[in-house]
Amino acid sequence: MTQHLNRRGFLRGGLALGCSAAAFPLISHATFAAAPFDHRLIVVILRGAMDGLDVIRPVGDRNFRQLRPELGQGEGPALDNFWQLHPGLSGLMPLWQAGELGFVQAVSTPYRDQRSHFDGQDMLEAGTAMDSPPEFRRDGWMNRLLAGLPGARSETAFAVGREALPILSGPAPAQRWAPETEMRVSPQARRLLEQLYEADPPFHSAAGTALELTEMLNDLEPMDPAGESEAMMAPPPMMGLPEPEKANAEVSAFAAFAAARLREDTRIVALSLAGWDTHAGQDNAIRRPLARLEQLILELKAGLGPVWNKTAFIAMTEFGRTVRQNGTKGTDHGTGGAMITAGGAIRGGRVLGQWPGLGDSDLYAGRDLTPTGDVRAVAAWVIHGLMGIDKGALQNGVFPGLDMGTNPGIV
Predict the structure, then answer these.
(1) Neighbouring-strand partners of residue 105
(2) Residue 324: pLDDT band by 50, 70, 90 thresholds?
(3) Distance of alpha carbon 335 from its chain centroid, rounded?
(4) Radius of gyration of the chain (CA)
(5) Does residue 101 lie in a domain region?
(6) Domain containing 111 — which CATH number?
(7) CA 350 to each of CA 52, 213, 236: distance values in angstroms, whole numbers, following the listed order
(8) pLDDT one-digit tens code per residue, 144-184
């Protein structure tokens, strides 16, 4: 029987050539881009609404324990006489002591009252206000940042999982890759692939990118903690692993690849970590995402070697969680939350932000931590410090309608 092969047939039957449609840059969860400056920026979206009051605990506020009598009782390391770190991040304390870890409390996007994960994440990644023009709401703020950098070019990317990253959507090109995808293509199959897509420039470019990424992975030489180059081990096989082990393997694969690229031409990275929606049994539920976040930061630091000193890492979430614990020893969707910063380029060892208090009259809508700062302003000041981008461009082009306020000196 004669088999006719066209583009659709190839995408449906890609496994016959040892690759899958997932290898093509159609879905993004993390993106890398080269840029004309020497510092590195890593942005992590913490999907599900991280409870900032549990991660960076205001134990010095006399109302805190009364509002959460059965939640967050495990003692964590003291950051100072007011703040306590969740014990699940205790492995980051050497960074705090070295001034390479910091936090910002009582921040949020302009999103208010509806408390929808989808809408909150859309606004977080678009970098807009409630009344921003529609043309800004269609693009992600990181894509607008890339589009405005003279000489910046999209380089390489991959997805950890299958989710999209709206923070990167827009006219600036972005390429994607999933770490569990294997591209084992023979020379003959590669020639067939190139001929198949010759007359279709978008597909020809996508296929070429997927093959180049495969070759690049074989050539990567990450840095070990001692600063010496060593051959990269292949990402651990993920199919068939239990979910916790699979999640850890994904984080390790991403950190190794990201560090290798950031040591070269890549300057900007975005990704997301899920699992922060802790409506019930929060004491146990929050430990897994905290472990992944700690793992990511520590493996990035180890893999980056000296480049860590030029790196700023910021983690942000769509909104915070309720101040009071609920009946299932969890927390519900709230407003004010926290951000995490790390890297040798930041001025850490501090908890920034204006603390609003936890008294009844201090709470937003009688239930939430009142936001006193904007997550967009934090990101904008980091970008300003790293890249020297003009405040006007950040407030009008990257984060439309933002008032950056006073420089908090994060970088």
Answers:
(1) 338
(2) very high
(3) 20
(4) 22
(5) yes
(6) 3.40.720
(7) 15, 39, 36
(8) 888 887 776 655 323 233 467 788 777 776 555 455 555 55
**Is residue 29 in some structural domain?**
yes
- Count of structural domains within the chain: 1
d(CA 153, CA 150): 9
- Does some domain include residue 184? yes
Q: Supply the pTM of this predicted model.
A: 0.80
- The torsion angles phi and psi of 364, rounded to 5 degrees, stand at -80, 125
Q: How many residues does the chain have?
A: 411
**Is residue 411 domain-resident?**
no
Q: How confident is the model at residue 125 (pLDDT cuts 50, 70, 90)?
A: very high
Please tell me the distance from the alpha carbon of residue 112 to that of residue 127, in angstroms, as a whole number.
Answer: 14
Q: What are phi and psi of 383, to 5 degrees?
A: -60, -45
Q: How far is CA 305 from the centre of its chain?
A: 20
Cβ(309)–Cβ(267) below 8 Å: no
Range of the domain at 181: 7-398
pLDDT digits (tens, 9 = 90+) for 244-285: 676 788 888 878 878 888 888 788 888 899 999 999 999 999
Contact 307, 260 (CB under 8 A): no
Query: Per-residue DSSP letters for 62-91?
Result: TTHHHH-TTSS-S---BSSSS-EE-GGGGG
Best CA proximity match to 327, nearest among 279, 276, 275, 363: 279
Residues contacting residue 111 through CB under 8 Å, at least 6 positions apart = 119, 120, 123, 124, 130, 318, 319
Classify strands 40-46 and 153-157 as parallel, antiparallel or unpaired: unpaired
Closest CA to 352 of 107, 104, 109: 104
* Cα Dmax for the chain: 78
**C-alpha span between 301 and 10 (Å, rounded):** 40
- Residues 231, 222: Cα–Cα separation, whole Å: 7
